[in-house]
Write a structure and sequence with these properties.
Elements: E1 2-13, E2 16-28, E3 33-37, H1 44-51, E4 59-64, E5 67-68, H2 73-79, E6 80-83, H3 95-105, H4 110-123, H5 139-151, E7 157-161, H6 169-186, E8 189-194, H7 197-203, E9 206-211, E10 214-219, H8 221-229, E11 231-237, H9 240-250, E12 253-255, E13 258-263, H10 266-279, E14 284-290, H11 294-302, H12 306-314
Parallel strand pairs: 3-8, 3-9, 6-7, 7-8
Antiparallel strand pairs: 1-2, 1-4, 4-5, 9-10, 11-13, 11-14, 12-13
Helix pairs in contact: 3-4, 5-6, 8-11
This protein binds adenosine-5'-triphosphate.
């Protein structure tokens, strides 16, 4: 559904050169739900904008929904849906009229547009607000309108740029239910960007991590966590001296009277370590064991925490 080869975008602004995306190779199969993760400025939006023909690449090629982005941008646009960051917010028309206008814009006939608008209002649970002005809706409702607008012409591929940013946790969960449901019932391929690691982890079947314009990981969330991060076991000792001795035996990070160790399988390692340490006269007074997160994956790959960067950017 999407193949990109060495896609690159370099911006030149005010005498400065920004390598926004460098040599991006990408392959997305029909029906996949892919989450594109990365810190602010990683190049996610630029990638989406190139794939949706809104921005010409500096070099490289891509074929999207069967059409070449350089040679047939109109073909790409007619086959895809694109929901940018916060698109419908300022619209003054009523929800239903907005959908009708979008259908007409996409070249659909009046009858077909009306039927399709009704279908989307129903499936995205917009019935109660269909006659209200888009401007007056809540953030979550507006995002659902955005998605309906992106889907009016029945695209087989939908791009969503940060669909849930700025929503409260309840609206985020609700929006995701709709996205997952859409994928399940229509088989639409969905390629979205998000800052929310938990969302990508739970809902996408495939996660691509981008940093400084390059894809640095591409797999299922489970595989990435297993391969790159592992479980994290924290052991607490009666003294810093004991903790230091334990760290010398097991490795890991030593902080005061506790140590933290990454291991592929904490369930199995933990009882063994406690036994071995005990035999060496190092008594473990408390132990915790935590499954890895995608943030641990990002940390393992870059030495930085995506969560902290996201929080700093949102502040
Ligand atoms: N039109 C532009 N002119 C100059 N630089 C740009 C332009 N658009 C993006 N950039 C730069 O390209 C880099 C990638 O930006 P991009 O918006 O693709 O990142 P992103 O991963 O989508 O970030 P965010 O999560 O904040 O939306 C950044 O350094 C950004 O400042």
């Amino acid at each position: 559904m999407i193949t990109a080869r060495r896609l690159t975008k370099t911006f030149r602004a005010k005498g400065r050169t920004v390598d926004a995306v460098t040599d991006l190779d990408l392959s997305v199969a029909p029906g996949e739900l892919v989450a594109f993760l990365g810190p602010n400025g990683a190049g996610k939006s630029t990638t989406l904008r190139m794939l949706t023909t809104l921005l010409p690449p500096t070099s490289g090629d891509a074929v999207v929904a069967g059409c070449d982005i350089r040679r047939d941008p109109a073909g790409v646009r007619s086959r895809i849906g694109y929901v940018g960051q916060g698109t419908s917010g300022g619209h003054t028309q009523r929800v239903r009229d907005e959908l009708h206008a979008q259908g007409a814009f996409s070249g659909m006939g009046r009858r077909e547009t009306r039927a399709r608008a009704d279908e989307l209002i129903d499936s995205l649970e917009l019935g109660q607000v269909a006659n209200r002005q888009v401007q007056s809706l809540s953030g979550g409702q507006k995002r659902r309108v955005d998605i309906a607008l992106g889907l009016i012409h029945r695209p087989s591929l939908l791009f969503l740029d940060e669909p849930s940013t700025g929503l409260d946790p309840h609206s985020r969960a609700n929006l995701w239910e709709h996205i997952v449901d859409l994928r399940r019932t229509t088989g639409t391929t969905i390629f979205l960007t998000t800052h929310y690691l938990d969302e990508a982890d739970q809902l996408a079947e495939r996660v691509m991590v981008m940093d400084h314009g390059r894809v640095i990981a591409d797999d299922t969330a489970a595989a990435l966590k297993q391969r790159l991060a592992g479980d994290r076991v924290t052991l607490e000792f009666g003294s810093a001296t004991d903790a230091a001795a334990a760290a010398a035996r097991l490795g890991g990070d030593h902080d005061g009277s506790s140590i933290s160790v990454a291991t592929p399988d904490g369930d199995v390692a933990l009882p063994r370590w406690i036994r071995d340490l005990d035999a060496a006269g190092l008594e473990v007074v408390a132990a915790t064991h935590r499954a890895p997160t995608l943030d641990d994956v990002f940390l393992a790959l870059t030495g930085r925490s995506l969560r902290e960067e996201g929080a700093a950017a949102a502040a």
